[in-house]
């Protein structure tokens, strides 16, 4: 048996004409084929025929419109009869028929590729004859649409051609197999019309032409006729169709889309007809009616010209999307800044687009925007203590001072109205680049005035101008500027980093800028400053001007000094550092005459004018300046130097205001901790040094404190660093480690004695209950005093129960361990610094030392003669122990004879402990330093230590906040009092 696979066009009683697959057989000498079976997916594997992949694919496609599959895809409930009986005509026409035609078209495309025969089969016959075979005519088919405009009507008819033969369809047996694209079966041939819808042929199956009355012809010509001319070949009588090369322009339109979102749309204008670049239609047709006559213009769009223009815009940075064009890297079309980015792009590329032949237009916008080029020209004069900035803006024909845009720049307003009513959109980069200049400068109607210490603002924001105007400041921005010669009168050999610090301060001095030397403690800030004072000492004929001739007036008052006179420099210190500075001056700069302006009788012996005239340096304290503010502000000093400058960190304090009232030609701050709690600490010190460098405090909070401290804004950090970098020099011990002795830090955990533990637990329970009760009654923040009081009592019990009156008889585990270790170290002749927050603790230790016969020194806030106490420890070989309260001795002490440091009661802030450690671990130390921190296990001390090691949020709040109870939670707090 010889079987053959064929496809047949057959009529389905519900679906109309469809394709179906069959196996047929020709027997013997028969001239016809007999149908063996209709093929379905389920009987492909019967084994009676080997199907090719194409044949299997055809069966699968035709199976998709089997009754069962159609029911499954489009039906709801019931069987096949119900499906075809109840399906509505709209669903059938718009969903079912297109779905079936889609499968049929796929099958016909496969038939074009393979030699699989196609037959016409009547459903009631099972034999197929040669005359039933269908020829596929998929080449050289065409349809010509004919329109004839007459006096009272327009006639329309269709001419079908195959090769050069015209085919008449009227009154013929024609089968429309698919509508669009049209597949038409006629006289044994299947014609393929790829650009023709079959429904346009239907009228001509019954009539020669279609008549359109004159009354509706206008609408007919503007719709059907125009569309037909665009897509098909048309023969016209009674009106004209003009074809040829049109005038063309490229338009980049700034407009809104249907969703009111802004966009740039590229349009190609042919003979006044616009085609968006996303329009795929390459045949263009438009209609003009004049004096009752219709003329259609038809042309091909210039595809290569359009591609070249689009390529030009891509090179300019525009990206193509389905809705329009937008600048590369900008895609959020709903953003308010997006519209401005489009206009700025047009501003920046106007000339390039003109050269490319692209015009700019605006459509559907509520205002007219300026889309031309713009320029900003800047000139600078620096003849005075200011930079005078003359800047002018050009928007096309309009030119005006840049100062007029100050409000826009400071308030972030992008739109500025030009005299002709157009809206200019200011470039976004102007806001980032010039906002600081406007903020920090003074303005008049024509130009800006910027203080010289703001040269980093010019350097970072005005680009090329700094080479011309900022060359003189190179020494402040170079990493290693040429160092000045160290004064010969300095009795010290400066280390390399100290020479660098001295040179840096001297360069600031030459430019009349204030500076903050923020080296770590122990790196020799004092000796660097003394070198600066020696270097800047003014001389006349080779001698200091301290003893220039003076003349009294007739009353012996109001002395007039020589114009060459250099007044003394005022150095403001914590009280504890006065003797340290005195020692350093005598040791390293004995040629400097100094005066201590301290104590109750500070003004009794000599007038301040004489003091200033007869000395190089005046040492005083912050308290003295605060108390003598009105008196001291009358005088002019040469340098105003603040040691431990963090004393003025609170800009609202009396100390800050008093210091800022002092008059001096130069200013300097020395501190190891320029920022203790907040960036506002930095603002206070920088504003003292260079008034206005960081703007107002309100501006500084808005621009830096809030973004950096709350959001960790890296850009704000970078910007702040650029502003202050020339005026702050900070070196850590790690950076100059080769110049420092080694340091070993250990934590010694100790147990409580049984009685101590019992007393501690009882007190902890009582405190916890008391705190909880207070929190419930008045809230956490108002309970701060009760909490702090409770923490202090627990700390005292953890150190020594005897610190609380009722526990004098109870011993302390920590206390005993400290004494044990001290007995060994004293015997080995080591020197030890012992720091505690509690003076009572120090006194308990001192009592035991006296019992043991150990010599010691004691420094607290009550100590009168600090210098004597310090000298005794430093120079007495039999005095091995120095008891120091953290508050009184955390700064300003140079105790390099010690090689052991005991931190008896570590607490929240490690910075305070390191200040204590730095009393011994500093320049001049030639021994390895050991640091022991004593922690009582099972107490509040151990909890705090673990929180610090983990860098917990609770620890950070207590370390970094003046009032941690504003941000700490009840649960966090009560965790400290848990078992």
TrEMBL record:
SUPFAM superfamilies: P-loop containing nucleoside triphosphate hydrolases (SSF52540)
GO MF annotation list: ATP binding; DNA translocase activity; helicase activity; hydrolase activity
Residues annotated as domain Helicase C-terminal: 817-974
Family annotation (Pfam families): Helicase_C, SNF2-rel_dom
UniProt-listed InterPro entries: Helicase_ATP-bd (IPR014001), Helicase_C-like (IPR001650), P-loop_NTPase (IPR027417), SNF2-like_sf (IPR038718), SNF2/RAD54-like_C (IPR049730), SNF2_N (IPR000330), SNF2_RAD54_helicase_repair (IPR050496)
Superkingdom classification of source: Bacteria
Domain Helicase ATP-binding: 506-692
Annotated keywords: ATP-binding, Helicase, Hydrolase, Nucleotide-binding
Annotated protein name in UniProt: Helicase-like protein
């Amino acid at each position: 048996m010889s079987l053959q696979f064929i496809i047949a066009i057959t009529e389905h009683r519900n679906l109309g004409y469809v394709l179906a697959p069959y196996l047929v057989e020709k027997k013997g000498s028969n001239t016809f084929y007999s149908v063996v079976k209709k093929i379905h997916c389920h009987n492909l594997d019967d084994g009676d025929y080997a199907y090719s992949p194409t044949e299997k694919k055809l069966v699968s496609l035709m199976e998709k419109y089997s009754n069962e599959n159609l029911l499954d895809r489009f039906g709801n409930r019931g069987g096949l009869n119900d499906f075809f009986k109840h399906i509505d005509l709209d669903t059938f026409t718009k969903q079912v028929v297109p779905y079936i035609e889609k499968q049929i078209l796929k099958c016909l495309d496969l038939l074009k590729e393979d030699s699989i025969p196609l037959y016409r089969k009547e459903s009631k016959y099972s034999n197929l004859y040669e005359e039933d075979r269908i020829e596929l005519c998929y080449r050289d088919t065409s349809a010509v649409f004919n329109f004839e405009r007459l006096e009272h009507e327009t006639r329309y008819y269709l001419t079908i051609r195959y090769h050069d033969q015209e085919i008449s369809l009227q009154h013929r047996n024609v089968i429309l197999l698919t509508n669009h694209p049209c597949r038409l079966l006629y006289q044994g041939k299947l014609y393929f019309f790829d650009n023709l819808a079959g429904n346009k042929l239907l009228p001509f199956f019954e009539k020669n032409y279609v008549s359109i009355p004159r009354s509706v012809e206008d609408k007919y010509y503007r719709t059907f006729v125009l569309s037909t001319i665009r897509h098909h070949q048309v023969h016209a009588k009674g009106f004209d169709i003009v074809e040829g090369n049109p005038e063309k322009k490229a338009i980049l339109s700034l407009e809104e889309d249907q969703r009111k979102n802004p966009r740039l749309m590229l349009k190609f204008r042919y003979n006044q007809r616009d085609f968006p670049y996303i329009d795929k239609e390459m045949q263009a047709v438009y209609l003009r009616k004049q004096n009752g006559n219709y003329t259609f213009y038809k042309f091909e769009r210039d595809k290569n010209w359009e591609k070249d223009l689009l390529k030009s815009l891509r090179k300019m940075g525009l990206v193509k999307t389905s809705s329009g064009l937008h600048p590369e890297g900008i895609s959020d079309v709903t953003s308010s800044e997006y519209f401005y980015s489009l206009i700025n792009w047009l501003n920046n590329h106007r000339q390039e687009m003109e050269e490319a032949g692209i015009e700019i237009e605006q459509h559907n916008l509520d205002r007219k925007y300026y889309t031309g080029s713009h320029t900003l020209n800047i000139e600078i004069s620096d003849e005075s203590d200011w930079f005078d900035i003359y800047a002018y803006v050009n928007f096309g024909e309009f030119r005006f001072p840049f100062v007029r845009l100050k409000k826009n720049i400071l308030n972030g307003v992008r739109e500025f109205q030009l005299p002709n009513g157009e809206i200019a959109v200011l470039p976004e980069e102007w806001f980032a680049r010039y906002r600081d200049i406007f903020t920090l400068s003074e303005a008049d109607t024509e130009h800006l005035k910027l203080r010289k210490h703001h040269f980093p603002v010019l350097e970072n924001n005005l680009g090329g101008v700094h080479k011309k105007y900022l060359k003189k400041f190179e020494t402040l921005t170079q990493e290693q500027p040429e160092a000045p010669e160290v004064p010969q009168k300095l009795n010290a050999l400066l280390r390399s980093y100290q020479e660098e610090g001295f040179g840096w301060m001297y360069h600031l001095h030459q430019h009349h800028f204030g500076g903050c030397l923020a080296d770590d403690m122990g790196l020799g800030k004092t000796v660097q400053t003394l070198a600066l004072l020696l270097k800047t000492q003014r001389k006349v004929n080779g001698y200091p001007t301290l003893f220039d001739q003076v003349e009294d007036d007739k009353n012996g008052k109001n002395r007039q000094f020589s114009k060459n006179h250099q007044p003394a420099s005022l150095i403001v210190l914590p009280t504890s550092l006065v003797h340290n500075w005195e020692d350093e001056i005598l040791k390293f700069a004995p040629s400097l005459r100094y005066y201590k302006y301290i104590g109750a009788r500070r003004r009794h012996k000599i007038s301040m004018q004489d003091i200033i005239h007869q000395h190089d340096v005046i040492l005083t304290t912050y308290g003295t300046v605060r108390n003598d503010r009105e008196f001291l502000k009358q005088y002019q000093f040469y340098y105003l130097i603040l040691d431990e400058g963090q004393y003025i960190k609170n800009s609202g304090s009396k100390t800050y205001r008093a210091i800022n009232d002092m008059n001096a030609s130069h200013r300097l701050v020395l501190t190891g901790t320029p920022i203790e709690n907040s960036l506002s600490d930095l603002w206070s010190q920088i504003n003292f040094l260079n008034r206005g460098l960081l703007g107002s405090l309100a501006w500084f909070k808005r621009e830096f404190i809030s973004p950096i401290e709350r959001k960790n804004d890296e850009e704000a950090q970078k910007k702040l660093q650029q502003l202050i970098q020339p005026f702050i020099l900070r070196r850590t011990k790690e950076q100059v480690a080769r110049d420092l002795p080694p340091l070993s830090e250990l934590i010694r955990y100790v147990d409580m004695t049984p009685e101590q533990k019992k007393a501690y637990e009882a007190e902890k329970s009582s405190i916890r209950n008391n705190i909880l009760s207070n929190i419930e009654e008045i809230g956490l923040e108002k309970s701060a005093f009760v909490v702090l009081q409770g923490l202090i009592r627990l700390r005292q019990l953890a150190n020594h129960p005897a610190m609380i009156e009722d526990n004098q008889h109870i011993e302390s585990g920590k206390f005993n361990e400290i004494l044990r270790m001290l007995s060994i170290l004293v015997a080995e002749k080591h020197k030890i610094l012992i720091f505690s927050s509690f003076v009572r603790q120090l006194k308990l230790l001192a009592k035991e030392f006296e019992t043991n016969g150990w010599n010691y020194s004691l420094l607290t806030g009550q100590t009168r003669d600090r210098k004597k106490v310090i000298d005794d420890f430093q120079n007495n070989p039999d005095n091995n122990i120095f008891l120091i309260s953290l508050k009184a001795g955390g700064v300003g002490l140079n105790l390099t004879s010690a090689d052991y440091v005991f931190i008896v009661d570590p607490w929240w802030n490690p910075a305070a402990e390191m200040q204590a450690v730095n009393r011994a671990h500093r320049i001049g130390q030639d021994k390895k330093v050991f640091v022991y921190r004593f922690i009582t296990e099972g107490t509040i001390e151990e909890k705090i230590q673990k929180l610090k090691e983990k860098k917990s949020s609770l620890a950070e709040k207590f370390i970094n906040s003046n009032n941690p109870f504003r941000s700490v939670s009840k649960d966090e707090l009560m965790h400290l009092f848990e078992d």
